[in-house]
Amino acid sequence: PMQRVDYVTPADGSSGIPMPTALSWKPVAGAAYYQLFVREAFEDKRIVYSKLLSEPRYEFKPGTLEPGGYYTWSVHARDVNEHILLGDFNHGSLSRKFEFSVAD
User: Fold this and answer.
1) In a 3-state reduction of DSSP, which class is residue 93?
2) Number of helices and strands in the chain (H, E)
3) Using an 8 Å Cβ cutoff, are 77 and 3 in contact?
4) Residue 86 pLDDT more than 60?
């Protein structure tokens, strides 16, 4: 099984940070793609459910996050077994939830 994503930016538990323009993480050996999930933590509202990403980074579109917001996010590292959409992926490679809050 692939390892889980770790070593993330912003760091897990970051509080009152300036508005981030991106989320990033250390590449996972064997992962050809990543899928990112971001939720607003208080209402558990889906903010981002990304397409397959080929780089360990996601750039936010302006206005995606709000000042004073509290967010959780996780990343699913995926291999492809020679098929980009239907290839293998291992549920064990879904990261734990990371958290951050944005300054007002």
Assistant:
1) helix
2) 0, 8
3) yes
4) no
Tokens in use for 18? 């300036």
Q: What would the DSSP string read from start to end of 62-91?
A: TTSS-TT-EEEEEEEEE--TT-TTT----G
Question: What whole-number distance in Å separates Cα of residue 56 and Cα of residue 63?
Answer: 22
- Residue 90: predicted pLDDT: 58
Digit-coded pLDDT (tens) for 10-53: 999 999 999 999 999 999 988 888 999 999 999 999 999 999 99
- Confidence (pTM): 0.88
- The SS3 assignment for 46 reads strand
* Residue 60 to residue 53: CA distance in whole angstroms: 13
As a whole number of angstroms, the distance between CA 29 and CA 8 comes to: 15
Residue partners of 96: CB distance under 8 A and separation at least 6: 4, 74
